[in-house]
Amino acid sequence: MKARDLTDLALRNLREAMLRNALTTLGVAVGVASLVAMLSLGVGLQQLASKRLSQSGLFDTIFVTPKNSFRGMGRPQSRDAEPDKPPRPLDEEARQQLAKLPNVIEVYPQIRFFTEVRFNSKPYSTVVAGMPDSSRNSGAFDGMQGNFFSSASADEAILQIEFAKDLSDKPSSLLGQDLVLRYAERQTNPAPGSDPAFTGGFSVVPKELKLKIIGIVETEPAAGYGGYGNARLLIPLQTATTLRAAQVNDLRDIVRGDTSDKLTYASLSVRAKSPSQVEALESSIKSMGFNAFSLLDASKSLRTFFSVFDLLLGIFGSLALAVATLGIINTLVMAILERRREIGVLKALGAADSDVQQLFFVEAGVMGFLGGIFGVTFGWLLGRAITFGTNVYLKRQNLNPIDLSSVPWWLVILALVFAVLVSLGAGLYPASRAAKLNPVDALRYE
Amino acid sequence: MADTLPAIQLDHISRHYHMGETSVRAVDDVSLSVARGEFLALLGSSGSGKSTLLNLMAGLDRPTSGSILADGSNLAALSSLDLARFRRNAVGMIFQSFNLLPRMTLEENIELPLRLAEVDRAERAGRVREALERVRLTHRLGHRPAELSGGEQQRVAIARALVNRPRILLADEPTGNLDSATGEAVLTLLREVQAQLSMTIVMVTHERPLAERFADRLATMGDGKLIGLSPVSQAATQ
Fold first, then answer.
1. CA B148 – CA B135 distance, rounded (Å)
2. Burial of B88 (0-12, 13-18, 19+ CB in 10 A)
3. Considering chain A, what percentage of its residues have pLDDT values greater than 70?
4. Per the CB < 8 Å rule, is B117 touching A346?
């Protein structure tokens, strides 16, 4: 029988036992809805976590340090460090070379330093970080109060919300106000004279800079790797560079006797075009004689975690669909009993076993497909309802709304294909049983 | 030469069933030849094996032994798919209980064999109308079987059996559910169709007078065996 005729007959048969078939289809729909809702939550959570992490800029960034860089208290020297050979300095030349590597978007220094902020004549200690202009588009500043820096060298500051709360009970009132940044500027000493004890070096001079507060951000754009914990006061990178604020590598340099005025960086951040290029870039940088570190491994672990999480959600979601398959089997077996004589007539008129089998298959498939469509819709609605409920709760807690569920197109197609395949699987036994009916016995059936 | 071959040739056909440990010989060593264009009536009491024999001729059942030559093939040796093709193209069947699908209109019931034979949609409507004209029911095209009398339903069944233009029509007690006048009308129609289309008809019945009036030859079954075979004129005098 031609596919169109087969479908016509199947639809007609389904319409005849409308209530029963509608209930069976509803069973499939509930199964698919539970699967879609579960997976949409899994996908939504994964997207939320990925978005937050990518906003931090950690996964497409490689942190480059000199091979024997100061690694912090209690941490051993880099294993690659060769004590006899002077390490390659992380200077402007190195920065230019790194910038020329393939798939590199930008290279910028990690400038972070302790500071004392004076606001309304009160001192507050915190860490300042220089933010490159490119971070404007990273998404980390989405939803911020106020604005991003007006220029790359503006005397402006963006406060992290927690720091803003330290400064004022009403953080939004800080916008437009000034604060004073007190920092230690590195000033190179004149060349050594006749005193052998004096080796040159540099002086540290306290300085002040007035900054205008132009924004408050709730995320932590400068969180993570950096050596000093989270920076809570953000200024343009160029502004931070011109301050020549003393950093931890200055201390290291002076201990080593490297007191030249040549600018070196404690670390550089190399941003790759995408996280997938980080691994190759990291090994290129290492081969140039630097330490390179990225959080790609952490990202991989995260993906593994969510894969397992999605799998578990999928299994739980599929349980309802498994129950629905029993409904399909039951409905079709009932249909065989009711339509036994009809099957006999079809066979007497020339239907082959395969025609009868296909007819039942199509009926199962149609129930699966319709159940899939309704299920995806219900699942999506369920996800939206959960997101809505969560956001109502978050709002009461004075937290920002989140998009908890996500139904990407691949999930829609996957759910539909899965629903049809499961239904066809459920139709296997009834279809085969119907096909094997002896026409003589079937025609005798009353 | 082909025209001289019988429409159906049964050669030492047996059909045995096993019911527990008992073997039932529903058809026992029957040999019979049905000529092209012949109207053969199979007579016999209940359980004599006449319906089983008809099912074997229709390719709905397989013999335990023997061969059935029809439409150039030995039905006993055909695969189930080829048997389905034989039923679809070479034979039309009508039954005592009409066996129309109650959910479908007359048009859809008659169209069913055309769907199974994968006849083009464009051609189907004409073929359905032609079959309905033959049984004079064109005005009931959109009706459902339950809206028709028994005689009309059997006429629709005849139209459905004819729509694929088979060479053989097999009728299993076609008048069994009809009153005598309607039964006669149905058999008159069958005779008419046979004459118009030069079809071979094999009809199972237990109504000897009707069989004698309409059939060319009578075959009588008893206990699964063919116990009599004679032209109607002789049978009537016996």
1. 13
2. buried
3. 83
4. no
Convert the pLDDT of each residue in A83-111 to its tens digit: 556 677 888 888 889 989 988 888 888 88
How many angstroms separate the Cα of B107 from the Cα of each of A67, A382, B110, B164?
88, 46, 5, 14
Taking the CA atoms of residue B131, residue B132, residue B134 and residue B139 in that order, the dihedral angle to the nearest 10 degrees is: -160
Q: How far apart are CA A199 and CA A334, in angstroms?
A: 98
Question: Number of structural domains, chain B?
Answer: 1
For A150, the token pair is 């007006």
Most confident of A34-48, A175-189, B216-230: B216-230
Cβ of A349 within 8 Å of Cβ of B80? The answer is: no
pTM exceeding the 0.80 threshold for the entire prediction: no
pLDDT of res. B228: 87
Query: Residue B160 domain-assigned?
Result: yes
Taking an 8 Å cut-off on Cβ atoms, the answer to whether A352 and B85 are in contact is yes
Q: Are A200 and A136 in contact (CB under 8 A)?
A: no
Query: Residue A442's closest CA among A114, A161, A433?
Result: A433
Chain A contact set for B88 (CB, 8 A):
349-351
DSSP string, B76-131: GGS-HHHHHHHHHHTEEEE-TT----TTS-HHHHHHHHHHHTT--HHHHHHHHHHH
Q: At A155, which amino acid appears?
A: D
> Which helix (H) or strand (E) element contains residue A163?
helix A161-167
**Residue B25 domain-assigned?**
no
Cα R_g (chain A), whole angstroms:
34
